[in-house]
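Continuing the series of single-chain predictions for the mutant panel. This is the parent chain; the variants come on the following pages.
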Amino acid sequence: MSNSKDIIQNDDFTLAYDTDAHLIDKNYNTSSYAKDVWYNFKKNKGAVFGATIIVLLIFMSIIGPHLTGHTYKSIIIEHASLVPRIPFIEKLGIFNGYYKGYDQYAAKGVSDIYYLFGTDTQGRDLFTRVWSGTRISLMIALTAVIIDIFIGMVYGLISGYFGGKVDIFMQRFAEILNGIPTLVVVTLLGLVLPQGIVSIIFALMITGWIPMSRIARAQVFKLKESEFILASKTLGASHFQIIFKDILPNIFGQIIIMSMFSIPSAIFTEAFLSFVGLGVPAPLASLGSLISEGYKSITIYPHMLFSALIVLSLLMLSFNLFADGLRDAFDPKMKQM
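Parent structure:
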């Protein structure tokens, strides 16, 4: 006979939880891919900061030229070379219109006028001209995205999908175009087209889409031998359906990211061309042309350079931060690479 102490009693074991409710499996809410992207994007403070600055710059480029009552080409020669003067802040002893110890505004008899960014050597309001120039830079950026998507993406998809001789021919053609410097392209286009935004847009159409086409082509090579692509071919799907209904949705995240990274490059290209005199013609203003004009007076009136330079720097930095955040949001694994 075994000892009564060896017999298992009902109260020898107790549940780890007080009630049976704790034993029910926990259910977690499922979230869509878009929600995951948005959640990952919000966690990136740099990307949120970049997006905020972009929205602010777009807003100012829309309303900024209409706030002062001046136009980008209004010349008031009596107000030439005035330094910045900002209401309320002037009471702090900064941006009060003083230059080298004397009040420029009082000396010219315009004590009741404020120029937030100052004026240039012809008396034009730099605040209006800077935001007008920002508008042009953003137009170039939008054009670059459209060109990337409608030319570069389609070119890369077709080249990567068909491969073989088609891919060889298309890539050699792209390499020939890429070997032509943008400066040469714009100079030649200036002989047959009016100088300005039109020639810059055509230059981007000739060579600006090539990086996007390479990204799209590489992504197609990764996917075109996948099982779902082979299944579509087996079911009789056409090449058009496979490219634009099966492959494109799976690489759209990378396409968007690459488009965002192309924006700073396009803005810098426009600024560089305007700086060397191949951009928008006077009296139109772009950030590059404003920097070029301000550079000539940097030793005497540095404010003519710094306002446009700061806006251009913010524009390029914010788009880079935004694009970097999008990349991490669409593919979090890229953050560890």
